[in-house]
């Protein structure tokens, strides 16, 4: 199904407009005004994928929204400019496709809203890569849930941003398509700083340089887990199955601890 998609030009690490790190400090996640977390602090290394695991309702999506500027206030800075405005691409858990636009026009939405020319070649290549070439002219209501998620992924990958936030980006896909699109995202977002929320420990182990677990009531971040090797990793390679079992055991242990 997948064609090879060349990544957009990655941000040069020495460019003065690009973040060296993203620092989050003093961020308290809230739901309906009630605090969900202790003050959180984390550092996201430039050019790497960080995955966030944790139980439903703990605040993972709220954390992404905060980084995207859509949630609670905190001290969000990067290592050079001190701000993230205009530097973030955000893929929400819901696909957010505009119902009156075609699949292709949804994919090109960011450039159109900014008044920039659309890279039609890249758009066509991405649509082919995710298996939506034949559906490019359809509107979202004609698509299955998995197709809608693929269209939302195309829109995200079309954005040329140094920081990419993704909330369960592969959750609606069948297992084979999920593996293919994980590989596609890893290639296309090479050199970007990616923060991905997922409920799938194997997905985190495949794609992430670092894994964080958000847990407890109020929520806090566990010590980062650093899987060996270079993503994307094969699910059956080396000791990854054993690490998957250990990560599941860790998640189970933290869930049993509850609010302690």
TrEMBL record:
SMART domains: AAA (SM00382)
KW Nucleotide-binding (keyword) present: yes
Alphabetic keyword roster: ATP-binding, Nucleotide-binding, Transport
SUPFAM superfamilies: P-loop containing nucleoside triphosphate hydrolases
Signal peptide from the UniProt entry: none
Species in which this protein is naturally found: Roseospirillum parvum
PANTHER family: ALIPHATIC SULFONATES IMPORT ATP-BINDING PROTEIN SSUB 2 (PTHR42788:SF19), TAURINE IMPORT ATP-BINDING PROTEIN-RELATED (PTHR42788)
Similarity-based family: Belongs to the ABC transporter superfamily.
GO MF terms held by the record: ATP binding; ATP hydrolysis activity
Protein name per Swiss-Prot or TrEMBL: Putative hydroxymethylpyrimidine transport system ATP-binding protein
Residues in ABC transporter domain copies: 22-241
InterPro entries tied to this protein: AAA+_ATPase, ABC_transporter-like_ATP-bd, ABC_transporter-like_CS, ABC_transporter_ATP-bind, P-loop_NTPase
